[in-house]
Amino acid sequence: MRLRLVPQETNFDFFKYARATFGASIVAVIASLAIWLSVGLNFGIDFLGGTTIRTDATVEVDVAEYRAALDELDLGDVVISRVFDPNFDEDQFVVTVRIQAQEGVEAVTSDTIRDIEEALGSAMGGPLTMRFRGAGLTTAGVMEAIASLSLDATPSENGVGFSLPEGLPLGTIASVDEAVGSAFPALEGSTFTYERIAFPSVESVGPKVSGELIQTAIIAVLASLGAILIYIWLRFEWQFSVGAVAALIHDVILTIGVFSLFQIRFDLATIAALLTIVGYSINDTVVIFDRLRENLIKYKQRALRDVMNLSANETLSRTLMTSGTTLIALIALIVLGGDVIRGFVFAIAWGVIVGTYSSIYVAKNVVLMIGVKRDWSKPSDGGGAGGPGGTQFANVDA
Amino acid sequence: MLQIPLWNRLMILFLIVLGLSFAMPNFFYERVERHNDAVATMERDGIETDELLAEEALWPSYLPATLVNLGLDLRGGAHLLAEVRVEDVYVARMDALWPEVRDALRDVRAEVGTIRRIDAAPGNLQVRISQPEGMAQAVAAVRALSQPVVSLTGLAEQTLDVVGNGDVLTIALSEAEQAATNDRTMQQSIEIVRRRVDEAGTREPTIQRQGADRILIQVPGIGSAQELKDLIGTTARLTFHPVVGRAGSMDEDVDARQIVLPDLNDPNTFYILEETPVVTGDDLVDSQPSFDGNSGIPVVTFRFNPTGARAFGEYTAANVGAPFAIVLDEEVISAPVIRQAITGGSGQISGEFTVESSTELAILLRAGALPAEMTFLEERTIGPELGADSIEAGQIAAMVAFAAVLIFMVASYGLFGVFASIALVLNVGLIFGVLSLIGATLTLPGIAGIVLTIGMAVDANVLVFERIREELKTAKGPARAIELGYERALSAIIDANITTFIIATILFVLGSGPVRGFSVTLGIGIVTSVFTAIYVTRLLLIIWFERRRPKTIEV
């Protein structure tokens, strides 16, 4: 027995509730715009500039302590957020720390990043383990160097790690590093790691670049809308391209609305997601339009509204199948793909749902409202190649 | 009826085999990578060791060995976006031009009177002449120094803009020459960055020019962006100066054309040096870390080109017994006394070096100085653990998505669903094949792009199958229905995929970094999915149909 998402023959009247659905779309668009303008988007450092540090600790993290530790550094606006993911180990606690762009600096200096790392390291509390790497290092020598700072350090079994006592003041790690460095000149530039906290990624974007990134992002979205407008116009009719682009704008705005409503981070990857939504949604719309074009030629006398309903019904099964498989894949990615791309994938999944809806309930409505030339058999009169009936490319099949 | 010519079938088969054979090395990623590294090492050094040969033998040489490049977010590493301050070079050019201008104006002294260089905006050279009525001659004399710009577009353009206003003569680089200079500066900067990064021996760094004055540097496997900055940001300018004497502090008064520089190791020692160096690092041809023959401490050896060797030889011959200073970036590394003439053009620098710092200095000297300063606009460090986690998560997600879509397709379309599933498997294989072939970089969003393609790739088949179902209703017989199904679904498939492809192209052109990675997999996925959905499933269907000749089919 075959799995059927819809019965073989459907005969829905998609325009029955046109007022309600189209009205709902308009309300949703307005609401999205309102949220966007009032609440604003949670821009990532790609667009705002600044630094994001991801920390990965083996003990429970107290965000308040992090905040207190960073407040001392006077870095301006700092956003600290816990990250949860089912893929994490039981003793894995991940936090992202976002720091605003520092005045007069393009990318954050390494000293600042080190200060931050150190502050967070000591905010973890408890003894801190430092590890030194390098040839010719002796335990006794390192112990002596640490002792010269009047700190009590305990060497670990293998002799390269040293535990430092609890509650160290800021700057301790740097001074220990320096003391060990000067005791062993050959070790200059050696690395040390904190046992309890790691920094899997540090990203810093200067304000100059971020400004440009916003610009390119806007251009990218507008350019793709424009390109689609032209393509559909050439292949179909201008009414279709208006309908399709209206549906796309609807999708993009609704997605932006959801991003600002839930304050999901909005960055470069989100722009990619938006454009993918545009791609998916247009894909869906075009399939219905294609059938509509075919049926308009076939049923020359039937009312446009009926032909549209027929076309949508005929393609309904395909629409739901494709959305279904795509959503299955995306849900797998949302659940299992890790937290790094979750926002991005969420945007696409949301876009698939909205895009499917809009190709049925928005694009067609707009075309119906504008109306469309019905006599497809004759070449368009008067206007020539540039006329509104620019369908001369419609018969180009690859 | 349902027919595909034999050559067409072979063509489809050939493309699949070709694509899959390029995808295959990716399943043995580590082995192939080690093989490739070994081959590269042997080619570079020309030495074959047993170890390297063993590594090479991990992968047979007759098989393709191209891999999908893993992006930094998957492999870990550092990313920098640097802006080259190209204007720095204009300033240096103008400073270098001043002696020439001076000499040229001296020749027409009778008309222009006395000349004096005055302070000007950076990149401009301004000269005041005492007889303004001779300005025309002055401009002509300086213009004679200008040359036609060597560039494709700069036809009939001159290198210098010379303007006389009252008693002030302003000289600047012309726009065409600025553009040409910028290009040269960028090329040189990229070359030096590449050499410095390569010297550090990291694997497959990406060093690209972006826009007019930017360089994107991505180095996998490096611990932090800071390390990378240290590696490329240091301008090692090496010069050798005659020593005049010692100074008590930096502020000591010295004669014209003399400078005071601090000692690198002793903060209380300052040297007074002749400003004009005997030889500069520009004449250096090689530099290696080494050990002093007598004491065994680390040193850096160097060798000059013939010009440098001659100048160095003449100077040392004439000044035996006098000290000379080896200066690196405005700091005196050492100031040894010349014991004998160094005529061979090679020598060694000793200072308080460690093995690491001598290696580092040798690299810096070898790589030369950057022509202009760089500012870093963007820096990212991604740890390898994060990347490994992401790959794993992406793999699991892709597998689950894959399985779910397959089940869904087979449940919906039965045997036809099986064909579509085979096409889907091939599709993913082909995506990897194309990615390897063009050497594209796979990023985390790229994996998302592949997963999305897995979902969307069945669309073309769904369109065809749904169409076949419809055609079956009008009872034209199974063969005709299949044929019509493919035929009629084609225009929708083409339109739908071209629009998505347009988006992928725009993303590629405008995007950067991860966005670009996503657009590449999306774009390739569209092409391969159309190919597999239209040609491969059709071929499978036809082969099946020819064998069974079913009277009725159920889709």
Brief write-up:
The complex is a heterodimer of chains A (398) and B (555). Helices cover 54% and strands 11% of the residues of chain A.
Tally of alpha and pi helices of chain B: 16
> Major β-sheet of chain A, in short?
4 strands, antiparallel
Oligomeric organization of the protein chains = heterodimer
What gyration radius of chain A follows from the Cα positions, in whole Å?
A: 30 Å
Overall geometry of chain B: elongated
Describe the protein's topology.
The complex is a heterodimer of chains A (398) and B (555).
Chain A: H1 18-38, E1 42-43, H2 45-48, E2 50-57, H3 63-71, E3 78-83, E4 93-100, H4 110-123, E5 128-131, H5 139-147, E6 154-155, E7 161-164, H6 172-183, E8 197-205, H7 207-235, H8 238-261, E9 265-266, H9 268-298, H10 304-336, H11 342-361, H12 363-370
Chain B: H1 6-23, H2 29-45, H3 50-56, E1 69-70, H4 72-75, E2 77-84, H5 87-107, H6 109-112, E3 115-118, E4 124-129, H7 135-143, E5 160-165, E6 168-173, H8 175-199, E7 206-210, E8 214-220, H9 225-233, E9 238-247, E10 258-262, E11 270-274, E12 279-280, E13 284-291, E14 298-304, H10 306-318, E15 324-328, E16 331-334, E17 346-349, H11 355-367, E18 374-382, H12 384-413, H13 415-438, E19 441-442, H14 444-473, H15 478-510, H16 514-548
Parallel strand pairs in B: 1-19
Antiparallel strand pairs in B: 2-8, 2-18, 3-4, 4-6, 5-6, 7-8, 9-11, 9-12, 9-15, 10-11, 13-14, 14-17, 15-16
Task: Provide an overview of this structure.
The complex is a heterodimer of chains A (398) and B (555). The longest helix of chain A has 33 residues, at 304-336. In chain A, a hairpin with a 5-residue loop joins strand 6 (154-155) and strand 7. In chain A, helix 9 (268-298) packs parallel to helix 11. Helices cover 54% and strands 11% of the residues of chain A. By secondary structure, chain A is an alpha+beta fold. Chain B has 16 helices and 19 strands. The mean pLDDT of chain B is 83. At the A-B interface, strand 8, helix 7, helix 9, helix 10 and helix 11 of A face helix 9, helix 11, strand 18, helix 12 and helix 14 of B.
